[in-house]
Amino acid sequence: MTQLAADTTALVAIDLQEGILRIPLAPHTGADIVARTDRLASASESASPSSL
C-alpha cells in the first residue's frame, strides 16, 4: 500500500453531486464511488484534521 505524508497530501473530490447516483457507471456504481470517497475523506481527516 502506498504511504502518503499527511502534512503534504490533499484529497480532492470533484463533482460528486446527487446526480451521480442515477448515472449507470461501470465498473463502479455511483453509490460505490460516493462510499469510497467518504472512506477516503474520513481517513484523510483522521490523518490530518486541518481542512478548508
Automatic annotation (TrEMBL):
<dbReference type="InterPro" id="IPR036380">
    <property type="entry name" value="Isochorismatase-like_sf"/>
</dbReference>
<protein>
    <submittedName>
        <fullName>Uncharacterized protein</fullName>
    </submittedName>
</protein>
